[in-house]
Amino acid sequence: MTNRREEAGGTRPGTPLPSATLPGQTLPGQTLPGQSLPGTIGPYRPVRELGAGGMGRVYLAASHSGRAVAVKVVRGEFAADPDFRWRFAAEVDAARRVGSAFTAPVVDADPTGTPPWLATAYIPGPSLGEAVRTHGPMPEQSLRLLAAGLVEALAAIHRAGLIHRDLKPSNVLLAKDGPRVIDFGISRAVDRPSFTVEGHLVGSPGYMSPEHTTGEELTPASDVFALGAVLAYAATGRPPFGTGPVHALLYRTAHEDPDLAGVPDALSGILAACLHRDPAARPPLPQLQTRLRPQAAADWPAPVAEQVARYEREATRYLRRPRPSRRSVLLASGGAALAAGAGAGWWLWRRPAGGPAAAAPEAAWTADVPDARAEVSRLDAGTVVCTGPSSASVYDRNSGRQLWHDADGTQYTTGPGRVYTVRTDGLLHALDGSTGKQLWASPPEGTGSSKIVSADADQVVLCSANGAVRGFDPTRGTVRWSSTVSGRLGGVQPLDSGRMLVSGSDKSTNFTFLHAVSVLDPAGQRLWNRNLYIPHAAGDRVYAFDQDRSLLALRAADGERIWSRDTPLSTTYQSSDLSQQVLGLLGGRLYCYPELDLRGMSAGPLIAFDPADGSTLWSTRPPTGLLNSVAVADGVLCYLADGLHGIDARTGHLRWHAGADLGGLSFLGTAGGMFLVGSVSAAAAGLYGFDPASGRQVWHYPVTGATDYWTGAQDSRGLYVLTSSRLLAFRLPG
User: Fold this and answer.
1) Could you say which of 254, 288, 313 is where a domain stops?
2) Are 58 and 50 in contact (CB under 8 A)?
3) pLDDT tens digit sequence for 404-415
4) pLDDT interval class at 26 (50, 70, 90)
5) 664-680: buried (b, 16+ CB within 10 Å) or exposed (e) per residue?
6) Which of the chain's ends, N or C, has fewer CB atoms near its CB within 10 Å?
7) Are 425 and 299 found together in one domain?
């Protein structure tokens, strides 16, 4: 006899699931490669894009006093829609009416702004879904701590006359002092008609109540059902109605009993009552407060508590300093840039084959940098260039003497022998890298604010707010070519023969994190375009994933497919968010790896591919799922995730784990034949070098007062690192 659930499709409740397939992810939490952030949103300064949803984008931002807030901004194409504006205003009004220690409070809003926005207190911590996927089910006392906070949050929501309607693991964040319920985007007032239109789902299948799925009128008891499903998930690591197609989940919810195997005996009865198909039979919140309260001192499991602490540290780092642009560093040609330690992007280094054994860099000089938010952004023949969001400082490479400083721009980018800035006059200015003297100024020829996307020896690419993209001659400042992108420009990557890959987002890709990819010829004419995930330009090829998660190699000249391969991302890791992955070539292999995310979404695999045919060489899941950048030396691939991990680049097997006791680490790639990290730990601040073969610490340079993450750059002449407004120069051996 065929099992009814198998017939419907999906996974049966009670069947153990790979952690990557569980639902309940938070909003995608990554700024796309090279993607610009808004300058300000009301009085707030965005420092990181946290994600996107049906209503708009969400940013981590800082107030003037440095307070962290999460700012939701309505999508531009919807802001002019009166009905959509009304719904956003209703969300603001609803959120302001809810007051609880276990919800994210509204701190500011402008529903009539252009665009409208809403700011809530930022909650640094993983979602419940991420915590359970990473660390497994929670013990009973932690479940009771979770339940007590959720019940109190729902009580506050219901007292305000609202129903949440979409309580699920991704809408529960775990802070150090308890859970927080977020996202009232689909809440509706109880005193208004509250029906679900047939064929249109407002909620999350598997957590929606039976009456919700069948279109009946909703009451607060619907949230009680969702509460039971969320707690069952936290207790077992799997949804109580399994996984699978939407229709299968809706059927099971409406007609079958939940699977509560694995729920602690003391809680199984009350959770079963919450999940009763009859709303009238579900327990009221006051009864749940009594039945679910902790019976002893309770806290999050130790691994979850450490995860929360890590997100707090990362949030602090982002608020101290804006996140550097991945592409602006990747396109630099005057020195190998080193990775910033807070997940700053895909920067790669490789020790030359047969190079010298690890040896200590020799300290040369130190200098003070005026801008605490500056990064080491470029090395030229005689200069070290440090740029921040609103300043540039240039130093003599031999002596460390400051040659010049400029703080009149709104953005700074470097190219060979040049520093480029957009000033408040709206013009693109080119400054001589050695003297700071202005060489030329040119209008962006677009409307609205402009962003420098890339700069190299051949061109400077500028994008205006209206989608106009232009390439400027770096010598004369004249416009060489012009084009347009639909939506926001994601980045520009160089290809062979003067071609370039331009990626952006439009209405069809804006909230799926697909890139609308175009390849342009040297005159800016579009050769071909296609929607792709995480495109990577490499000479005469473009590597990317398609919408089926197959890995592709495309000819840069015409977009024709060279090969296509299924990968572990299309089979084993289907639920991994491709927007959280980074793709790049290093040491003759094509690597795909998860990038750090403040909301803990970066739990994808690390995979090595053969770029010749796309075959998978090996695949592994990092132990914490939080990578910052990777480097290769002596056949060992190294990444930072709770210390350094050395992976055999040929097999993918772990060879060593080191540096976990140092704390506050930034990964700086390779230098002098070592893997290099910087620490801002009070007890261990300084630079550390590790031997690639063994993981043994072989060098330490203490730095007193280092409190901010490290950035740097190196070439054959030296290593230059920056932390806490101090620039340190080292001569490299050999």
Assistant:
1) 313
2) yes
3) 999 988 889 999
4) very low
5) bbbbbbbbbbbbbbbbb
6) N
7) no
b/e map of 492-520 (b: 16 or more CB within 10 Å)?
bbbbeeebbbbbbbeeebbbebbbbbbbb
Q: Could you tell me the pTM of the whole model? A: 0.56
Fill in the DSSP letter of residue 137: P
Looking at the fold, whether 351 and 241 belong to one and the same domain comes out as no
Smallest Cα–Cα separation from 664: which of 387, 301, 312? Answer: 312
Count CB neighbours of 46 within 10 A: 23
CA distance 729 to 706: 15
- Both structure tokens of 684: 């261990």
Note the pLDDT tens digit of each residue in 409-462: 888 999 999 999 988 777 899 999 999 999 999 876 655 567 888 888 888 988
Half-sphere exposure of 715 (CA within 13 A, CB side): 15
Residues 373 and 254 occupy one common structural domain:
no
Strand partners, 583: 592
> Both 286 and 328 in a single domain?
no
Same domain, yes or no, for 205 and 332?
Answer: no
348 and 275 in one domain?
no
Number of domains in the chain: 2
- The token pair at 321 is 């300093």
* Rg, the chain, Cα only: 26
Q: Give CA separation, 93 vs 123, 188, 202, in Å.
A: 20, 11, 19
Structure tokens at 168: 């699920």
Residue 265, domain extent: 4-313
Query: Given this model, what pLDDT does residue 379 score?
Result: 93
Residue ending a domain, choose from 313, 348, 376: 313
